[in-house]
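Narrative summary of target 7.
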Amino acid sequence: MNDTTPPIGAKVGPLLRRVAAMEAAMWRSLYVWARRKPLPLAPGDEPFGYLGVVKPILGIFIALSVVEIPIFDLIVTNVVPWGPARWIVLVLGIWGLLWMAGLYASMQIHPHVVRDTGLRVRLSSGIDIWIPWTDVEALRKRHRSLPSSKSVQVEQEEDRRVLYISVGSQTSIDVLLRRPTTFDLPKGRSEPMDELRLYADDPDGLLRSARGTPATGTVSR
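Modeled conformation, tokenized:
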């Protein structure tokens, strides 16, 4: 019998590439955010953030990282007899702090965008989905809390397949699609989806901004 199990390298290679791409994106986002330049928006574009629901949590983690760095440095310096250990711990602590700041920056500079021609759904630097209004049947405001903390989730609801792009295990807007549609996700192309659910801090504002589009005839709250 032939063994059809893919080799370990076939799984590890793509994973390492995704990790490297995410790491590079974090540092790039931190650099862009630190420069305090305005978001590159086209005329008529309206950005809608999604950071609010996780902002307190990220703030706590960043603050704890700032406090932990000198504490661990003091402990390692006085307890571990190996000199390089102090510098290893110090570098790891600073890297962790900058990584958390980079995650905050990435979410800050990659908002959802409502355009005259469609909706751009984003999550940090890893997800960037474009949905033309001609593909949208309806937009609905509905807050949901999900049992899983995964940012990308797929759920089968009877004969409909739903894609969740959640923040803090929450979504606040349902995008009903006119036809099954596939999307580019971090792990590859998705199966055809009938609906996409996303989180925005201001769902009412996003729905108002979508007025005048082909989707507005079926917008509900």
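Helices lie at 8-34, 55-79, 84-109, 203-209.
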